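Pipeline run #58 for the internal structure catalog. This entry was flagged by the ingest filter as a single-chain record with no existing model, so it goes straight to prediction. Upstream metadata was stripped on purpose; only the residue string is passed forward. Reviewer on rotation: M.T. Logging verbosity set to normal.
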Amino acid sequence: MRIARRLLNSALALSLAATFAISAHGVSSARQAPAGMPTIRLGYLENNPQWAPTLDPAVVEDQNSSYLTQLLYGGLINIKQVGGRVVPYPQLASRYKVTGSGKIYTFSLRKTGFANGDPLTAQDVVFSIRRALSKQTNSPINTYDSMIKGFANYSAGKSSYLGVKALNARTVQFTLSVRAGFFPEVLAYPLNFILDAKVMRGTSTNSGGTYLTTTCKAAAAGASGPFKAVCHSSAANDVTSFYPGGSTPTLTLVPNSHFYQKAHVRLVIPAIDSNQTGLRDFRSGGLDETFGVPTQDQATYRGKPGAYQFPTAFIEYLGMNVNDPPFSNVHCRLAVAYAIDRVTLAKKYLHGAYKPLYSFVPGGFQGYFNGHSGVPYYDPAKARQQLAKCPGGINVTYVYRNDTTDRNAEAAAITAMLATVGIHFTPKGVPRSEWLNYIARDTPLSKTHTAACYGDWFEDYPDSQDYFYNLLYGGVAENFSGYNNKTFNKLIDEADAAANQSTRARLYLRANKMMLNQAPVVPYDNGTAFDLVNTKKVHGLIPDNYRAVTWAKNNDWANVS
C-alpha cells in the first residue's frame, strides 16, 4: 500500500467540516475505564486530524485504518511476529487444509464470537467475502482476491457465483482459479476480515465504507476481533456517535468478551494531526505510545528505555517512464541506477532512519537480494559509461511528494548525486494528493509524459508477490513505470503458483535480479520504524515489523497490560 495513500472520501469529509482539537490533550474526558482495567493511550491515529479514513475493513488502503480495523476485526488468517520473522497463522480459523492441486482451501472455524454475542459462523465468512468483493461495495483493493474463482464476473456484477461457500456452520471453503501460494497471507489483509452478517445485512455498502466509519453501534456490536468500540450515542451515520461533538475525535475500545483471546486493557486512540504533535503529546504524558518519530528527533531517544527502532517492509524507489525517451533506453536508466549513493543518502540525509536497499523487496522476504554483486550499485564511473550510451543525455523533471522534510532532503540529495555524473533532474515537489495522480490514478507515467517519479510501498501482506506483482507486473495499475517484460511476468506467474516455498524464492530472486539490471525502477532505501512507549506504565507492546509499529506480542492483546 502507499502509506496513507487515500484521504477521506468527500461525503465523510463534509460531515466532519466542524473544527476539532488535534492534540491528544483532553482525551481524559472520554468514558472512564471499568474498575481495575488500565487505560492505554495510543498514537495509532496520528497524521489524521479529523477521523479515521475508514473503519470498514473491505476498503482499507492506509496504515492508520489498518491498525484500527485489526483491533476491531479478525480474519481467518492473521499475521504475528515470531522472532524476527512475520508469519501467517490461523486466527478466526482453527486450522485449514489445501487440496485440489493447491486450488481448494478448507477452513475450520474457531469457537469465537462477535461482540454482541453472536457466534462466528461459516455464513458470516461467506457474507463478508461476498460483500468485500461485490460491485456495490466497489472496494479499491478487491483485486487482492482476484485468484478466487469467479472473481472477475462477480466483482463486475455480471454473475452471482463466487468461489467461497459454507460446507456447514463451522466449515468454509474457497476455490481458486489458479494456484496461489500466497493466498493465506492475502486472507490476513483487512479486505478479508469477518463481519457479523446480522449487523451488516441491509446496510449501505459503498466505496467510502461510511456506515461502519460513522456508526459506532455497528463497530460495538459486530466486532469480531479483540476489542469493541465504546459509543457516545446510538446514532447511525454520525461520526460523533463515537465521541462527544466538539471534542477531540477519539476511538475508545474495550475488550470483546466473546473473542477467544481475552484482552485486559482499555484503549484510547485520539485523532492527531502529525507525528510531531504525537511526539509532543507523548512528552507531556497525553500518549503512552507514539509512532513514526521524526528522524531529526530520533537521536535524543536512541538507546533509552521504551525507544524502539526496528526494520519494516517500507521501501522507497525512483521509477522511470520506460515507454518514452530518454528512459525507454536501458542505458539511460542504468546511468541513474549507478549514480545514486544509497549509503550516503540513508546515513547523512535520512539520519540513519533508513537502510540502503539494493533489492526491490526488503530483507526477510522471498526474492530479497543481499549485496551488490551482479546488480547496479553506486559507481560514478559506470554511471558515466552508461550515460555516454544514452542518446541525447538526460535532462528531465523529477516528480516527488513534498509532504515531509525527509522527502525534500532526499530529492535534493538525489538531484545533486545525479548532477555530479552529468544527469540533470529538475525536482518538482507536489502534495501527496497530486503525487497520487502520477503513480496510481494516471498510470503509467507515459500517460502524463512524466519522465521520472518518486515511489514508495508498504506491504499489504508479507510476501514478495505483493511487491513484484503490484508494482512491476505488466499492465497492473500501480506499475507506474510501464515496465512490461514477458520473461519477468512469466517468472512471477510461476512463483505465485508454486507450492514449494524454496521454489518460489528462487523464482522471485531471478525476477528480482533481472528487473534490477533492466532498471525500470531504482530501489534505494528501506525504512525503519521508530516508536516510543511509556514502559513504566505499558507492558507487552513490542516492535512489529509487519505493522511497522509497536503492537501486542504475538498479535495477542491478552499479553498487554
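catalog note: The first strand starts at residue 39 and ends at 41.
catalog note: The chain has two domains: 10-273+534-559, 311-528.
status: ready for reviewer M.T.
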